[in-house]
Amino acid sequence: MSLDAFDRAILAIVQTDNRLPNRIIAERVNLSETAVRRRLDHLREVGLIRADVALVDRDALGQTLIVAVTFADDTPEIYQAFRARMCADPHVSQCYSIAGDVDFIILVHAPSLTAYERWAEIQLLGDPGVRRFETSVVFTTHKFDTAVPFDADNGETGGR
To answer: Topology of 58-137 in CATH?
Structure first.
């Protein structure tokens, strides 16, 4: 999707504070309040803005775990079934299929390590398609940022 400088500026602002009134955003990007509202509505309609949410401090409410999962066989059925199950699981906050020795990386949130152990027994040990999994316990989250960086000069995102 092509974004102009105004869209990029608006997205940069709402990624860090989506509760700002359109009037304030309009002042910052030098557009009318109506134009900002129209652009935000359009960005939501096309799915570029997926949700307006509050980010909860997960560390304060339990344990975050990073799990690397390797399958016994590389079949589309195993991938699809695992992906669907992880995406439907409320304990899984992020799920990535990746290249390399590991097939999936998932971030799991559990109220305790005991609760995670019960979850892993059901979701991972109970899955015959899973050959092995490795769990890393997150001690401290030093950076967690949901914003996509924008280069205001050329419209590209900061990541490659």
So the answer is: Alpha-Beta Plaits (3.30.70)
Token pair for 42: 């359009």
Query: What is the token pair recorded at 20?
Result: 């700002």
pTM to 2 decimal places: 0.77
What are the structural domain ranges in the chain? Answer: 5-45, 58-137
Q: What is the pLDDT of residue 153?
A: 52
Could you tell me the sign of the dihedral formed by the alpha carbons of 89, 76, 129, 65, in that order? negative
Q: In what order do the strands lie in the sheet with 130-137?
A: 92-97, 104-110, 63-71, 130-137
Instruction: Specify the amino acid at residue 106.
Output: I
Q: Which of 50, 51, 1, 4 is nearest to 30 (CA)?
A: 4
| CATH class in words for 5-45 | mainly alpha
How far apart CA 42 and CA 67 sit, in angstroms, is 37
| Sign of the dihedral defined by the CA atoms of residues 66, 70, 74, 78, in that order | negative
pLDDT band for 160, please (50, 70, 90 cuts). Answer: very low
pLDDT grade for 139, boundaries at 50, 70 and 90: very high
- Chain-centroid distance, C-alpha 9: 21
